[in-house]
Amino acid sequence: MKGLYRLAAGLAATVALSISSACAGPGAPVATAADAKAFLDNVDVTMTRLGIAQAQAGWVAQNFITADTEALDARATQAAIEAVAGFAKAAVRFDGVDVPADQRRQLDLLKLSLVMVTPSDAKEAEELTRLNSGLRGTYGRGRFCADGADAEGCLNIDDITKVMASSRNEAELRRVWEGWHTIAPPMRKDYARFVELSNKGAKELGFVDTGAMWRAKYDMPPDEFTKELDRLWEQVRPLYVQLHAYVRMKLRAKYGDAVPADGPLPAHLLGNIWAQDWSNVYDLVKPGAADAGFSLTDILARRKTSATDMVRAGERFYTSMGFEPLPATFWERSLFVRPADREVVCHASAWDVDLEADVRIKMCIQPTEEDFTTIHHELGHNFYQRAYKSLPVIFRDSANDGFHEAIGDTIALSVTPEYLVRIGLLDKAPDASRDIGLLMGRALEKVAFLPFGLLIDQWRWQVFSSQVPPADYNKAWWDLRLKYQGVAPPSARGEQFFDPGAKYHVPDNTPYTRYFLAHILQFQFHRELAKIAGCTTPLHRCSVYESKDAGQRLNAMLQLGLSKPWPDALEALTGSRQMDASAIIDYFAPLKAWLDEQMKGQKTGW
Ligand SMILES: [Zn+2]
Question: What is the pTM of this model?
């Protein structure tokens, strides 16, 4: 369900933190401001060219999974990474040169622009990119084939997702949960080697390890950033703990002793293979007298709404706020439906193939509420990409990587019953008596996600830093899932398993903290846009659909791209320079009060 934003994969440019400059040494020619300008012009042209080649190869590799497209993708990725790594190292030459501020920022960003750095040794570089592509491909081809099942009977991730969402049979859920996790052990050895080589590359750029490189990207010292994450998590943790305890009580009523009275929640009973989104157990935990009053999934099915119609509805949201319609190429080149005759990576993603106008989404759309919302999310990436398309290529990215994920979700928060009425999908919005139901549904998605969003990179940072050696990969994974999520596996998970590999973003090597930040930021953005739109109803009933004022203010932030530090961008929209999770508390206040009432005298925590 989480979309992957993909600007020329692997080139996810981010926010600067100055790296100590290397002295050019006596005798080296002195670089001038004119040299710096010429250097950056060349960077702009080269990165654009290689970025487009990489995006094209990546698009084809994910739409036609074969050994050859994997190789082409790996080659294009390697070429782009090598070029950026070269530029990053060369940029140090201009550290002492007096250049205009926007050029200084580009030079700084170059040094922080890679998610993965290949070592300078050609053989190792080739091995690392091959491992990177191979891990991604292994995940994409992942199937659970039960004993005796023929190819037809094997379950891909879509099938697994459906069973996890709909089955209420504990034994079946356990079997399928364990089954999906069989795709990952073959990645284990490759992943350990991947970590080793990717760290080697990061060190060559002056970082302690790859995790430190990822954390250096947030306009503040890495340990200060970690503290900032803790501060935000502490703002929302009491709400999560209360939701966790309530869901546990309800699941125990359904599944009996398979759910402990006061321990962690079983990972296979939360309606999602990763227990990162609990929306699918809504029917088991919904408040008795406060059903949400309608099911968008049922409405879409009844109307036989096509995938294209769903995307058209998403586009209309943005145009109603004053954004330009999507180009014809979007409709010609996007993938909306899983092809019957070939392997594709169905994980929803948004692309900007020519870094200018050739935006696309790639999704295997089902007529469900979840996919309807995901479409609004993915299109957020495309509209962001278009808003900053005129900037130098290094600045064509979000203010920090959480912003890109937050924008689409902010718009999705405006997919309210009132909005569905306005676009003709719903006859009448349910009255306020249904609010607890509406908020419960959303909390199962958004609040339940927060600790998961935090822990993926906690695990990877520890893996990259060697604090967790390969021999403890799985133990560390489950320790963190227990600590943050209060979730435990259905059976013992020793080191013969590699459970992190069963989560897309690990084999894909996509940093994950962005999703945590996005979940915080989207409520902050929503609260502010709702205010600008003049919304007077409770926050969870506000939609900024058709508000040109909100659209203008949103665009003021989007068009900055990465050209300014992220607090500047945050300020352009919200007027504040600090991330603030209190908007989540505001949004869910009625639910929190209700949960407190339900759980009075009951034990919470695990
Ligand atoms: Zn996304």
Answer: 0.87
